[in-house]
Amino acid sequence: MKENKEEKTENLEEFPEIEERILLMIEEGYNTFEKILRRLHGLYPAYLEEILQKLTKKGKISKKNYAKEYKLTFPGEYRKKLDEITRIIDREYETFAEKFPPPHPLDFEWRFSLNSLKFLFKNIFENHSLQNKKILFLGAPSVGLYFLVAKKHLNLTTTNITIIDKNQEIINLIRENFENSSALPLDLQDPLPKQIPKEHNIVTIDLPWYSDYYKLFISRATQLIDEKDGWIYAALFPMYTRRLAIYERAEVINHFITTGFSPLAIFLSVLQYKTPTFEKQALKTAGINKEKQKTMEKWRYADLIVLKSTGKLRPLVTGKVILEETTEWKEITFPHKKIKLKINPLIKQYIKPQIITLETQEKTIIGRKHSTEKYIDMWTSDNEIYALTGHNTIYEILTHIKNKNSLEQIISKISKTYQKEKEEIQKDIEKTYKTLKNMLK
Question: Comparing C-alpha atoms, which of 383, 405, 385, 387 is closest to residue 396?
Answer without folding.
Answer: 405
